[in-house]
Amino acid sequence: MNIFLKQKISGTAAIQIDGLCKNFGDYAVLNNLSLEVKRGEIFGFLGLNGAGKTTTIKTLLGMLRPTSGKLYMLGEKVDAGNYKLWDKVGYLEEATFYPDLTVFENLDIARRMQGISEKESVDRVICKLGLEPHKKKKAKNLSLGNKQRLGLAKAMIHNPEILILDEPINGLDPAGVAEIRTMLYDLAKNSGVTIFISSHLLDELSKVATRIGIIHNGHLIQEIEMNKLEKSLQKNLVIDGRNQNAIKTVLTEHGYEFEETMDGHLKLKDEHLVESPEQLSELLVKSNQPPTLLQVITEDLEGYFLRTIGMVRGDN
């Protein structure tokens, strides 16, 4: 293969969605959705329940036919009949297994269903997902985290290049979530697997994804690199004092806009004051209204997510 062609193929995005629309009757679930996922990336697909995440995934997997738009994986057009493509894709919606069979037996059935002749593939995926200590355990006796590992092992037994996970951490305890998070990071970093993971939990996605796309009412409303998320979090200066009415007067006279918080303090969004809160402190002291509270508060991830989708709804 010539060098130019090699570079072109290796540079092809793992997943490309272009202008995807999906209607059920008169109801539009997806509206002109476009996104691209790079090879070896962990892409977090974030949205409330009902935002269109699962419909996007099922369309991407050829389970639903798009109303319009184009979808590609590994440079090939998505088509339910493109069997060679599905050899390169693993999918997990919910961990399913035969409860009275062992981990090994469950995976051996998955191997045969995938048409894999190599029996060694079972031991290989057990090793990759750290299931060796549980190899002979019945599936029903596994912890939640290990049941999810078993589900992922089934999705990965054919060594897919792309792994698509729909809400994989639902129902897991904190230890199980941490296990899955570590494993996904390892798969992407050390095995080059592209991971497309949907969730409604930004806090969890932020710990594993390299980039996220936020979907709301069928629209992709934002994409952001996780290493840039911190800069996007809103910061406010929260103040209070013994005579709040007098403080409000001082702020108004000096042209500062403020609003009351739910717990009765005053909140200012002025970027200059957030960077230099001591200036406001000096002003209040000179005005004989020394603050009893002066604190810069950074919005949490949930707040950022709700604020982002709130802008789409027209809320401020």
Q: Indicate the radius of gyration in whole angstroms.
A: 25 Å
Number of helices: 13
Give the helix proportion (percent range).
25-40%
* DSSP strand content: 25-35%
> How would you state the average pLDDT, rounded?
88
Order of helix and strand elements from N to C terminus: HEEEHEEHEHHHEHEHEEHEHEEHHEH
How far apart are the termini?
Answer: 55 Å
Order of strands across the main sheet: 6-7-8-3-9-10
Number of strands: 14
Structural class: alpha/beta
What does this structure look like?
The protein has 316 residues and is α/β, with parallel strands linked by helices. The chain is built from 13 helices and 14 strands. The strands form three sheets. It has a six-stranded mixed sheet, with helices on both faces. Helix 4 crosses helix 5 (120-128) and helix 6 runs parallel beside helix 7. It is elongated, with a radius of gyration of 25 Å.
List the helices and strands and how they pair.
Elements (H helix, E strand, L loop, with lengths): L2 H8 L4 E10 L2 E11 L4 E5 L6 H8 L7 E6 L2 E2 L5 H4 L2 E4 L10 H11 L6 H9 L15 H13 L5 E5 L7 H18 L2 E6 L2 H5 L4 E6 L2 E7 L3 H4 L2 E7 L2 H10 L5 E2 L5 E3 L2 H5 L1 H10 L4 E8 L2 H13 L3
Parallel strand pairs: 3-8, 3-9, 6-7, 7-8
Antiparallel strand pairs: 1-2, 1-4, 4-5, 9-10, 11-13, 11-14, 12-13
Helix pairs in contact: 4-5, 6-7
